[in-house]
Amino acid sequence: MEIIKKLVRLATLLVAVCILSFTLVYQSPVDPVSAYIGADMLLVGQDQRQQIAEYWGLDRSGPEQFLRWSGALLQGDFGTSMIYRKPVAEVIGEKFIASVALMSVAWVLSGVIGFILGVWAAYKRDTIIDRLIKWYCYTLASTPTFWMGLLLLMVFAVWLQWFPVGMGAPAGVLAADVTIWDRIKHLILPALTLSIIGIAPVALHTRQKLIDVLSSDYVLFAKARGESGVTIIRRHGIRNVAIPALTLQFASFSELFGGAVLAEAVFSYPGLGQASVEAGLRGDVPLLLGIVIFSTVFVFVGNLLADISYRLLDPRIRKGDSM
Q1: Is the pLDDT of residue 132 over 90?
Q2: Which of the listed CATH numbers 1.10.10.60, 3.60.20.10, 1.10.3720.10, 3.40.50.720 matches domain 89-317?
Q3: Per its UniProt record, what PROSITE patterns does this chain match (predicted)?
């Protein structure tokens, strides 16, 4: 029953997202035909503009366009990208491979570093270390992703020249000649941008949870038995704060995806984020709607994984389901 409820929620969410996204795109001031023509606008006559609109189905009314698009979508056809001249599903698949590498590295780094900082801050509560970690987290929590990306770009790519300025591979090099080390070098700065921004929520959440655990009665009883601070954190603290931290990290997929869009735009990284920006600016309606649907499913899966992990790791949740 729980799986059916989840599927119904996903279907309802997708229907609402499709209707809202199509309405917003249709009401957008960007003319898809003019954006498609681009710099050759003066060379294209009215008849050619009409032919382009007929070819892409843009000469029809809004409801008719939506019915045609949604009908094809139900058959698994996301349409054809006006920018890449390829099926939208194929474009999303290619871009997602680059984005998933970026988001995976950032997700792991922010989770591990944030958890360690949170435990350390709680263990050193009200000391200079705790205040420094809180200051660091509060500062990062109010820092825009694009600003952090520009800062890292200026320092490490322009001034120090330790890393490439942007893109996913060296410019002018054939794809067959690009090495794994080249791709890693181009991945480091965007991944660091996302990781640094994502540390603050995990660290602050872990710190507060661990402080609550250390103030509990069973920890006071453990202290009365002679257990030391490090032993208490290892035996009672980490075990109780790891599950909430993991759940929070899985639930952060929406922030991770939104941050990846900005980071990829700053570093011209060829992922889904850059593709969504290009699709919005150049009026590629099929690609933009396809990315919106894909991102919705991506965030829903993240929340679902958080729910599943919580049930697997916490026996109290499983007992509650079985009752």
Answers
A1: yes
A2: 1.10.3720.10
A3: ABC_TM1 (PS50928)
